[in-house]
Amino acid sequence: MRGFSLALKLPLFLVLAVVLTAFCGTGLAIFIGRRIMREAAIEANVNSVQTYASAIAFYVENARSLLETTALGLPEIRGFAAEQLGSPQLRSPLPIRNLPGRSVARRILNHSQVFEYVMLLKSDGTVYFLEPYELEARMSHHNLAFAAWHKELLSAGKTVISNLHISPATQRPTVVIATPIYGPYADLVGIWAGGLRLKELSGIGRGGLETGRPQRFGYVTDGRGLAIAHQAEPSFVENQTDLSSLLPVRAALAGQSGTAQHFNPIDGHEELVAYTPLTDPRWAVVYEVPTEAAFAPLDALSRTLAMLSGVLAIILGVGGYAVVRRVISPLKDLTTAAEGIGTGDLSNRIEITSSDEIGQLSGVFNRMAEALVNKDAQLRQRIEELRETNRELRAFTYSVSHDLRAPVRHMHGYAELLQKSASSTLDEKSRHYLATILDSGKQMTNLIDELLSFSRMGQAEMRKINVSLDELFKEALKNLAPEMNGRSIVWKIDRLPQLYGDPTMLRLVLTNLVSNALKFTRKREDAKIEVGSMNNEQEEIVVFVRDNGVGFDMRYADKLFGIFQRLHREEEFEGTGIGLANVRRIIHRHGGRTWAEGSVDGGATFYLTLPKSRKGE
């Protein structure tokens, strides 16, 4: 929320806190509520499917018992079947209204409301009569031996219940219950059968919900998964809708009972379902409720809570904005005064006389401003003292170095003259003394020259341009070529970047570092020197020079870049101890850093950093 004032941020944060709290609370309530309602809906489905399955089983058992009772108990049916249907002279049906047994069929149809029609068949499947008589006249087939249920009855020898099929009498889907009629010699002489009223089967359990689609409903399928009863969509029965692809139907037909939540591709709804099988007949009974109906009360409550949360957020936002504006006004004055002090105007003060926390803050701010004025005066005085001290130090260093050159030059010159003129007259010991004086004079001259160079390096004006470290490194190698003659050196040189800096000073840095690497690998038969660079996360480039030379003890690493500091004896490695001091001074003036890593007889690595941007002196 950068760019927004505190007067706007605080009310927004308040509103955001309310909204987030309401959102999290509502979300948690919805989550818990959905789980509770889901479990309640599933439990209700389980109870409903058990009740519905019992009602369906009772309906079917009632129809089966009715047929079996009339077939076995009524002499009109059993006697006629034994005498007439078993007679070989009876070759064809007798389509007359008053055949024996029709009165029984009429009573079944008039009083039971279970069957749509009742028929009597010979054992070979020939229809002897069908009641109502009007349907018999319209039958498309008078022999039903082809029917699957007829073949099953002949095989099982007991009452069977068919799968859904098209009735030859009504030309509509039906389910047939058929029971065998045996003669006095236990031979099959006839079949007593009836077609169920599937519309009444679909109406079982609907109660007063005959109009409109119920939110909770059940359905039944036959053994193949075809709908034979559906409380919500009776048309599924008329259309012989195949429901075998649905998970609960498959599970119930496999003999399983349970619950599930699944998407019904036929209805196009996510549904909570409970299912159970019927064993005889092998049907699937399913009871379900769409999730949108199950969670409808919770969704309505969620919308109400969201609306109340929005209203509360608006009220708190407007009220919070009004209160915060009164509090923020003094803070704006404090901000203005702080900005003035930040730009160097230490005369800014705040005039707030309230006794609350903001008044206390203004008093602390004013005292801080007074303290800054005093500290600023002290700091300016200290800076001026440091500048004067540095000027005097530079002048002293230059003066000492310059004034020492003449006496040392005279001493060295007269010693050379003495060596030339009197060397033959001196004994061996005297000549050794004279050679020592000459070497010391030469070393003193080198030290003075290096000291003068170090002094000038701190005062020289930097001329920064875009320079290529690759080119500077090549020039340094060219200058150091004499030190590499006759040596076996393995170089590993990475591509070095372009930088913004003083080329003369940076060339001296590379020359000193590579010269050190050459010097301290002199005792190695195969010297290895690596020069490379890498980026780091501080907007600077790291350049390093690594060698496999004699190295150094890390306990003394802090002395490496000090003036006249040496970690090796003069007899081992020559030098003045000023080269690395110059390196540190040059890199510091460029806004960078220097450090080294190494181990005794394990080589050394010298690092320096240079800024990517135009930084430094």
Cα-atom radius of gyration? 55 Å
Give me the CATH superfamily of the largest domain: Histidine kinase-like ATPase, C-terminal domain
Number of strands: 19
CATH class descriptor name of the largest domain? Alpha Beta
Number of domains: 4
Low-pLDDT runs of 5+ residues are 88-95
- What overall form do the CA principal axes indicate? elongated
Main pleated sheet:
5 strands, antiparallel
CATH architectural group of the largest domain: 2-Layer Sandwich
Q: Can you give the mean pLDDT?
A: 79
Overall structural class, as computed from helix and strand content, comes to alpha+beta
Helix content: 40-55%
Beta-strand content? 15-25%
Count, helices: 16
The spatial strand order of the largest sheet comes to: 2-1-7-6-3
Describe the model.
With 617 residues, this protein is an alpha+beta fold. The protein folds into four domains: 74-196, PAS domain (Beta-Lactamase), CATH 3.30.450.20; 201-293, Beta-Lactamase (2-Layer Sandwich); 381-459, Orthogonal Bundle (Helix Hairpins); 461-611, Histidine kinase-like ATPase, C-terminal domain (Heat Shock Protein 90, 2-Layer Sandwich). Helices cover 51% and strands 18% of the residues. The chain contains 16 helices and 19 strands. The strands form five sheets. It has a five-stranded antiparallel β-sheet with strand order 2-1-7-6-3, sandwiched between helices. A five-stranded antiparallel β-sheet has the order 9-8-12-11-10. Strand 11 and strand 12 form a beta hairpin. Helix 15 runs antiparallel to helix 16 (579-589). The chain is elongated and about 170 Å long. It starts with 5 loop residues before the first helix and ends in a 6-residue tail after the last strand. 27% of the residues are buried. Mean pLDDT is 79; it is low at 88-95.
